[in-house]
Amino acid sequence: MVCPQCAITQPEDLKFCKSCGANLFAVRNAIASRDTNEKFDWSKTWIAEMMLSEEEHKKREPARELERGETAEFKRYSEIKAGILTSSVGAGVMIFLYTLFQAIIASGHISPDAAPILRVIWVAGVIPFLIGVALTFNGLVLSKKQAEIANRALQPGPGPHALPPGANDTDPSLSSAVRPEPPEFGNTENTTRELS
Question: Residue by residue, what is the 3-state secondary structure of 96-142?
Fold first, then answer.
């Protein structure tokens, strides 16, 4: 076997390359388990991703989100979760700062001029608390409508170009706005359909 890292020939029974230490056992397993009937798809490589236009990236993003399981409902729950966590951190910071600085004031080792400032430092925890409340509100109220719209878009049903029941799609009396749109296989199919 030839080591893929250093290109030195190694005996078949070795698990690691004597020269560079590469894992030859893993290489053998990868070669043995490879499905030879599977063709390589260049469109799924990082090079193809890099060459896509910004418009194409935007078109493909919903499909990628579905592959990763990131539905609108999933994002909504993640946003609610983040809001609750941020609010909790803000409340914890407020309680910690209030307790800490009240103890410092009670110790009597600070000047009387600093005591009023130390009494209100706990208010800094209000900022993350309010951010968390805003995230939770957005997840509960605003994102709910987005999730409903996304769920309606995913449900099967008649599209805007659906034929009325019993209508024939070859009927010449139907306008092109009512005819169902064929899948776009290329330029000639649509051009031919429009010319006929």
Answer: HHHHHHHHHHHHCCCCCCCHHHHHHHHHHHHHHHHHHHHHHHHHHHH
d(CA 22, CA 10): 11
Nearest-10 Cα torsion for 183, 186, 190, 191:
180
Other Cβ atoms less than 10 A from the Cβ of 33: the count is 7
Q: What are the domain boundaries of the chain? A: 1-29, 72-152
Q: Is the pTM of this model over 0.85?
A: no
138: Cβ contacts below 8 Å, ≥ 6 apart: 79, 83
In angstroms, the CA 170 to CA 183 distance is: 16
Look at 92 and 28; give whichever has higher pLDDT.
92
Q: In the beta sheet, which residues pair with residue 188?
A: none
The whole-number pLDDT of residue 100 equals: 93
* DSSP-assigned letter for residue 42: G
